[in-house]
Structure formats: structure tokens, C-alpha cells
Amino acid sequence: MLAEIKGINEECGVFGIWGHEKAAELTYYGLHSMQHRGQEGAGVVVSDGKNLKAHKEMGLVNDVFKHADFSALSGSVAVGHVRYSTQGGKVLENVQPLLFRSQTESMALAHNGNIMNAYKLRGELEAEGSILQTSSDSEVLAHLIKRSGNKITEETISKALNQVVGAYAYIILKEDKMFVALDPTGIRPLSIGRLGDAYVVASETCAFGQIGATFEREVLPGELITISNDGLSSIRFAMRQQRKMCAMEYVYLSRPDSDVNHVNVHASRKNMGMELAKESPVEADIVVGVPDSSISAAIGYAEESGLPYEMGIIKNRYVGRTFIQPSQELREQGVKMKLSPVRSIIEGKRVIMIDDSIVRGTTSKRIVQMLKQAGAKEVHVRIASPSIQNPCYYGIDMSTRAELIAANHSVPEISNIIGADSVAYLSEAGLEKAVLKDKTIHQGICTACMTGKYPVKEEGEKEIAYTSC
Ligand code: AMP
């Protein structure tokens, strides 16, 4: 049995660039395009070939970089990070890239994912005299690398990676080399791009578009890439497993213009909406999507059902994600501030409300209420993913089973709780059909939070290990 990790997981974004004179500035733009992956803090570490220089702060990318002195961040190589947090671990020390100085070589480290055996590894490291600087699980890797030999090489990194279990996309920078690694199951997204002669690495391909870079290829599961002035080389540090890209990247997390493992996120969401319309049709007048993450699915549902798609809900763009509020009361207030109904569209209508997912049920309940107050005759909730019943151990904030509404209630009960006239979820088969258009390329997706099928297991981990990214 996997022990349950409390709701402190984070979803982060990593960015790296090799061989561009404006490395720090481009990192700023790249991170800005991945702001949705993390709003707690951001940072950059630049190398000029001799020294590593860091700038990181709590806050949004714009605010963090407003205070950056770009002339002091000179160098043609950089690694950057955006960090997301729900509760706990919200301190500057956990903002990445983490930087480790040493007499021989320094190392910066940026991570997206979750190290499942971090608690055990930290215990072992501490017992052997290591003093860790953060409460982040990401830091463990740096210590393991250093203990695998006093050099930062493909060999020492491979040895270290083989000791960690979980989901991870890592960028590791030393003065004259950048290393890029993806876990053997490839749960988190990570791609390589080119900008002229420069190499670019990013969690999401939207970052390439932002800086004018072109997509080159996906980093493969179990692959360790080295980038230096000699170019790019690659080894396998572990046996490649069948890839299981995180389904929530498609459902909710990634930007619609990103391609995740060769599948465009908007297109996959639209397909989810279409499958949902085939599986769970209902008589109604209009289809409304909850902005922004459900718009693509709502368009697909409307197209497939032949019903008009309407802008029935408007989002205030200047309110942060509701999910990041630490208490239930604040989250509910957050939903109220964020979304408003368009009464003239809604009044007297039978509305199909499409949302991408239900986690705790806060958002759906509030929106159903809002639509009814705006005069909707009926509200039928259609969710463009299977119900979320299990915690995620791979770095997506899914909270504990106790808080997951679908782990504790049947679909009719959920419908009752959120005040809807009906509720239906997309099936697992429908989700796979929507995402995995070509199984030879796309292999599979991780649906553990929906189905309980965990592709990577780690027995006996302690509750609340460390805050992940
Ligand atoms: P809830 O109100 O707790 O049911 O949250 C559901 C809403 O949060 C959905 O409408 C999604 O758009 C969004 N969401 C789903 N998964 C996540 C996640 N892992 N992190 C942040 N927000 C999420």
C-alpha cells in the first residue's frame, strides 16, 4: 500500500538554454509562458562558463524578474524554474533552481515531479552527516550526485538517478555542462528545442513558441542528455519503461498551445469533449465551458452534440488560481471573485456546464449555484475526465483521499452535493481515445488519480515526505 501524502504536492515548470548571449532574458520569457505551472516563486541560475549566478524570489515571474539585474546575470547558459505550492513548504529556500557551491564544481538543479522515496533517502543522507538546506524533495538528488563521486558527470548523475523513485524532469547545470533527465516512465513532460545554434529545454513546448525556438524532440523516458560546447549527447541511465504521460497534463495542467508527447493539448481536450458528448448526451439549450481550462472540451462537446456553444461564464483574469488558496473558505471566496455568469445568455436556458475535472467539488458547486442564480432552468454538469479518486504521488496537486469528493461519494451524491440536475464523467476509455490517437507514438497515459493504476510504486513511504515540485 502506498501511504497517503498530504496535499503539499506541487506542479512546477523547468526551462534551460545553452549557447545564447541573452540566456537570462530568454529564461524570463520561457518561464513567463509557463507561469500557469507555478505561481509561488521563480528563479534563474546563469553560467558564464566559470561561475554560476542566481536570482530567485517568491512571487510571479514578472515580479521576480523585475528585481533582476540582467547585467549581473551575464552568460550564455541558464536554467530556470517556476514553482507551485498549495500549503506548506512556501518559503524562499524551496524556490528553485537550487544552487550548491563547492570548491571543485558548483551545481544548479531544477526539478518538476515528485521523488517518492525522498523521506527514506533524506534519512540515510542525514545519518551519514549531510545537512540539507531545504524541505524540498528535489535537493536529495544533488547530495546523491556528490556522494556518487566528487565530480558531476554522466556517471555520477546516472548513479544518483538510479537511487530515486518517482516522477521527475530534471535540469542540472554546472559551470560548463548542462544535464537533462527524465524518469524511466516519462510521467512528466520535457522537450528539447533549438533557437539558432542554441539548445532549449522546457517542460512545455509553449515556451519554445514564446522565444521563437522550434521543437526538436521529446526527452525520452530514462534518458540523460548532456549539452556542452561539444553539442548534445545522450545515454540511457535506466531501462526505458512504456511511457505513461500524466493524464492531468492534458486534462488541466498544460497550456492549450503546448504539444505534450506529440499531442496538442487543445486538440486532446476538444476530443475529450466530443467523447463526453457521445457517452453522456443530455437534452439542453446551450453548452458552457468553465474558463479557461474547460473551453476546449466545451467546444468539442458543442460540436459533437450540435448544440450552440455560449460564453455563459466570464473569468476575471486578474485573480489567481482558486486552488492555490490554502483554506476551503478562501478557495470558495476565490471562485466568487474569479467567475461571473452572463445572465442574458443563461436565463431560462437548460445549460450543459463543462468542466475539465472535479477535485474537491468547490468549483463545480459554486458555478452550478451561480448559473441557477442567473436564471438557468437546468444545469447538467459534464466532466471531461474520469472522476479523481486517488492521490497523486508524481507531482500533481491532488490532495488527500479524504478531500477528494469522488473518493467519498457516488455520482448521484455528487450531483446532489453540487446542486446539479445531472452529473456525468468521461470514461477511462473515452479519455484514452481522446489522447492516444496513435498508440505506437503515444504508448499510454498515467491515470493513477482516476483509476488507481499506479505505474511507479514505492512501498512503505512515510506520510508527508517532503514538499515536491
Ligand atoms: P475543486 O474546486 O477542488 O473541485 O477543483 C476543481 C477545479 O480545479 C477544476 O475545475 C480544475 O480546473 C482545477 N484543477 C484540477 N486539478 C487541479 C490541480 N491539480 N491543481 C490545481 N487545480 C486543479
TrEMBL record:
Cite the Glutamine amidotransferase type-2 domain residue spans from the record: 12-230
Q: Which residues bind [4Fe-4S] cluster?
A: 246, 392, 446, 449
Q: Which residues form a coiled coil?
A: none
Name the GO terms of the biological process aspect: 'de novo' IMP biosynthetic process; purine nucleobase biosynthetic process
Keyword Iron on this protein?
A: yes
Instruction: Supply the Pfam families for this chain.
Output: GATase_6, Pribosyltran
Give the note describing cofactor binding and stoichiometry. Binds 1 Mg(2+) ion per subunit.
Q: Which residues bind Mg(2+)?
A: 293, 355-356
Which GO terms of the molecular function aspect are on file? 4 iron, 4 sulfur cluster binding; amidophosphoribosyltransferase activity; magnesium ion binding
Active-site residues annotated for this sequence: 12
EC number(s) per entry: 2.4.2.14
Q: What pathway does the annotation place this protein in?
A: Purine metabolism; IMP biosynthesis via de novo pathway; N(1)-(5-phospho-D-ribosyl)glycinamide from 5-phospho-alpha-D-ribose 1-diphosphate: step 1/2
Per its Swiss-Prot or TrEMBL entry, what cofactor is needed? Mg(2+); [4Fe-4S] cluster
Q: What class of enzyme is it?
A: transferase
Q: Which NCBIfam families match?
A: purF
Q: Which family does it belong to?
A: In the C-terminal section; belongs to the purine/pyrimidine phosphoribosyltransferase family.
Q: What does this protein do?
A: Catalyzes the formation of phosphoribosylamine from phosphoribosylpyrophosphate (PRPP) and glutamine.
Q: Spell out the protein name for this chain.
A: Amidophosphoribosyltransferase
Species annotation: Virgibacillus salarius
Encoding gene per record? purF
